[in-house]
Automatic annotation (TrEMBL):
Species assigned in the record: Undibacterium jejuense
EC number, as in UniProt: 3.2.2.n1
Native organism taxonomy: Bacteria, Pseudomonadati, Pseudomonadota, Betaproteobacteria, Burkholderiales
Keyword flag Hydrolase: yes
Pfam families in UniProt: Lysine_decarbox (PF03641)
Protein name: Cytokinin riboside 5'-monophosphate phosphoribohydrolase
GO BP term, pick one: cytokinin biosynthetic process
Group of enzyme by EC: hydrolase
An example Gene Ontology molecular-function term: AMP nucleosidase activity
Catalytic reactions of this protein: AMP + H2O = D-ribose 5-phosphate + adenine
Amino acid sequence: MKSVCVYCGASPGITPEYTSAARQLAATLVKHELRLVYGGGNVGLMGIIADEVLKLGGQVTGVIPKALMDKEVGHIGLTELHIVNNMHERKALMAQLSDAFIAMPGGIGTLEELFEVMTWAQLGFHEKPIGLLNVNGFYDGLLQFLQHTGEQGFLRANHLEILIHDNQTESLLQKLQTYKVVPTTKWVQSSDL
């Protein structure tokens, strides 16, 4: 593992725990000599984690659509910045440049990115580990909902194992580094329940 894609909010959130977790994740990535790949913004948790990785001497690759760069939310001080045409290109390039994925707290965009890479893993399009940094219980409701989805027959039990979660950066990263690919079959059968 050489690079980790981090999905997170373009807002810092309302509690200092989110900012603290972004800085802690940055320190963990730098400690393990992992390159940060992220959405290229200089705002919210995105900007905080990028700035912290750079401050600690790490490498940061950003990927941002031209329309967002033009609105002056692009981070111009990164190790590497890719400016792409649209969000689809952004997500594809971020996935291509990354060996693992971590979702921190964020909004709809963060959830959409997380679910897209989970879907790709479920379909067998990649075998990269996917982590959820559950800061201050932020994702407790989502994890409960995913369990409910499985119980209702819309998600195989082994597909739930695709998403690794922890509330500590170091232990989450360790789980990602020792991840064993979950065998996946897309369709749920009544015998799976």
